[in-house]
Amino acid sequence: MSLKEAAEKFQKFCSMFKVEADCFPLLFELKWPDGFRCPRCHHPHAYRITTRRIPLYECRSCHTQTSLIAGTVMEGSRTPIHRWFQAIFLHAQPRCVNARQLSEAIHVTYKTAWLICHKLRHAMTSKESNRLLSGVVRVSDTIYCKRLTPSFDWHTQEQPLLVGASEADDGTLGPIIIKLQSKIPLKDKYDCPDTAPFIRNHVNPNDAKNAIITRRYGPTMNKKLAWMGYDVTWWIGRTFLGIGPKHLQAYLDQFCYYYNRNRSSLYIQLLTDCIHSSRITYPELTKSASRLRSTRLIRASRQPSQQLG
Asked: What range(s) does the Transposase zinc-ribbon domain occupy (predicted)?
């Protein structure tokens, strides 16, 4: 699809959801596919209160009030719902978008766009976290952002990964899972991360003992898995211009979310998963960075001071 066709498709979508009220019917249908259910007592009937910007539904039995965005990634957001719909639509397109592009497309600040992007990834991660590989399962190590140098030492941007996949009868890869690994226990970048925790956490227990483990080099190499590191590096580089280790796992989950689904119906799938995924706040997204900075400051304070010659 050309950029012009993609722009026309997005404009057509925006014409369907011009204001928040245009989103309410679809939001209601996906949130309660079998009709309203009280989040507290599961009663099937409610009064609709329209005095708020977003309608409230009051349970006729226990009188608990809930909104359409309660319990979703949109909960607590001041961004209009139709802007969320537009963001989800753009994330479901073949080329996806980064925060800067999203900011320009839906007319919000960069900080708001960055937060929306990470909340959508949170929904994708939540959905992918329930996946277990089954059947014939293959696991291989690979490297994100691999540098073509003969050195045994890790480059700063290189990150070790483990990738697993269920293999179909015809040899094609089914669902995949990619997990970031720590460099600390590895002797060098040709050492293989421990695959036991990966298999224990991400492979069906009935199939775990028969999982096939290969390396990213050598005669037993599975090229489809070993080269997955190049695929994810290219995708992240093209879309986001590279990602550091702090948030890398979220982007790996996003890559797997796309890979494991039919792209023709991805918008509805992603919208549904966002509606049924709990929100994550800005402090929760950034607290790990504060911890990392604090750890570095503590380590630096423990090191002997250097004298300038």
From this structure: 20-65
Q: In one letter, which amino acid is 220?
A: T
Counting DSSP H helices and E strands in the chain, the numbers are 12, 7
Q: Indicate the pTM of the whole model.
A: 0.89
Kindly state whether residue 251 falls inside one of the protein's structural domains.
yes
The whole-number pLDDT of residue 285 equals 84
User: Total domain count for the chain?
Assistant: 1
CA angle 297, 287, 92 (to 5 degrees): 130
Residue span of the structural domain in which 248 resides:
136-259
* Rounded CA separation 59/38 (Å): 6
DSSP element (H, E) containing 283: helix 282-302
The pLDDT score that the predictor gives to residue 305 is 36
C-beta of residue 232 within 8 angstroms of C-beta of residue 252: yes
Per-residue pLDDT tens digits for 173-216: 999 999 999 999 999 999 999 999 999 999 999 999 999 999 99
Contact in structure between 258 and 172 (CB atoms under 8 Å)? no
Residue 303: phi and psi, rounded to 5, are -80, 145
Long-range contacts of 66-71 (CB under 8 A, 24+ apart): 66/38, 66/39, 68/24, 68/27, 68/28, 68/31, 69/27, 70/39, 71/39, 71/276, 71/278
Cβ(119)–Cβ(273) under 8 Å? no
Give me 285's structure tokens.
Answer: 């997204």
Of residues 151 and 208, more confidence is placed in 208
